[in-house]
Amino acid sequence: MTDLPLHADVVIVGAGPAGLAAATELRARGIASVVVLDREPQAGGIPRHCNHFPYGLREFRQLLRGPAYAAHLVETAKAAGVQIHTEVTVTRLLEGPALQLTTPGGIREISARHVLLCTGVRETSRAARLIGGVKPGGVVSTGALQGMVYLDGLRPFRCPVVLGTELVSFSALMTCRHMGIRPVAMIEPAGRTTARWPTGLFPRIQGIPLMLNTELLAIEGRDQVTGIMVRSADGKTRRIETDGVIVSGHFRPEASLLRTSHLRVDQGSGGAEIDQFGRCSDPGYFAAGNLLRPVETAGWSWKEGRAVGRAMARSLAGQLPPPEPAAVVKPSGDALKLIVPQRIVPSDTDPALPRFQLRVNRAVKGRLLVSAKGAVLFSTAINALPERRITLPLTIIPAGASGPIDINVKEDPA
Ligand SMILES: Cc1cc2nc3c(=O)[nH]c(=O)nc-3n(C[C@H](O)[C@H](O)[C@H](O)COP(=O)(O)OP(=O)(O)OC[C@H]3O[C@@H](n4cnc5c(N)ncnc54)[C@H](O)[C@@H]3O)c2cc1C
Predict the structure, then answer these.
(1) For 155-291, where are the E strands, in sequence order?
(2) What's the pTM?
(3) Which CATH superfamily is domain 7-122+252-320 in?
(4) Which of 54, 204, 224, 356 is buried most deeply by CB count within 10 Å?
(5) Ligand 1 binding site (Cβ under 6 Å of any ligand atom)
């Protein structure tokens, strides 16, 4: 690839909503060279595969399908003077900052004053979920299904089972409907759908049984799935005849680059450890979008990308406070799954992330306590379910605080 420069002011990894929004913002703030790299043949990120509504309301005040929304993001970025290079995979993050790349023209490097990581999320595979049985064809993630259906026009099965009830699982139902695929059941191990009410009505309206309190034990079949074994809460097992399994949700940040780099990874979110400006443990690197936490909407990721782009422009102008000292915020106990950002630097500068984002591991009811050195600094009531958005203002941490801050939940007695 000849027109890919050796150096840019900012290089962004990932041309999804977060990366493209940040790139557009950086150009609008006068940053001369902004390069976005993506390993896919086309820019736009996940929405390219999601040929359904609703996208674009927050960003463009239009109700768009995913591909139209992705095209809109790409056009806006290009019109702002962003250079987008596709079929470029970033293989290593180096100090400097600099990136090792594989391109259609071979292996090379690019350096930058700042790098922004926006590599999104991926669904947990069947193997990682320890689902038993054989490994026939017809077991796919929602993302893979959408690629097959919307990009390649394929119908991998006719009557699959959908595993999971996150928002993305309902996106899988819409994809099936588009291709005339008729799921025979939607299976959820918990006693309620993970996505908010009224999503649970959607399969019922379509006549698809929603099987709560049901665990997938094994997948059967040789070349193609022929059936699955499930167990319900009363311990009874049964077989369901089906020709496919859509293993949906259980997202993890796409953090392979982080794990082989010098940057700190946050154990709770599985993504980059950042401060309130989106700045990583090496201040030449920033991160935004779903890489920070699984998983938010496109509009949220876009807004976050734009805000982190703004903070990067400030950083390039020498207007961000030093990254140290910082208050290091960590969840303790087993109720809280993650908190983002993890580091708060004392500063009057507007944060890119003005609120903490939290998630819980299970249904939790009680009081959320923020403490330092054993003293409670703040407390508030919490009544939350897994995978639901919880936010709190950064001001729950007293101004000027540094050192470890503990966030814990004191649960109400059962
Ligand atoms: C099936 C599904 C349906 C959804 N439906 C909706 C919906 O209806 N409405 C909504 O608002 N949201 C929806 N979402 C969520 C939304 O798509 C995401 O929130 C949004 O795309 C996140 O943006 P992002 O920029 O963080 O990451 P992504 O869109 O995931 O983009 C990340 C990009 O990084 C690239 N990349 C990763 N690693 C590398 C590397 N090493 N080198 C180069 N490039 C790399 C990837 O190719 C990708 O293009 C859906 C998500 C899924 C999975």
Answers:
(1) 161-163, 185-187, 210-211, 214-221, 225-232, 237-241, 245-247, 251-253, 285-287
(2) 0.95
(3) FAD/NAD(P)-binding domain (3.50.50.60)
(4) 356
(5) 13-19, 37-40, 45-47, 50, 52, 54-55, 89-90, 118-120, 142-143, 146, 168, 171, 254, 257, 289-290, 296-299, 301
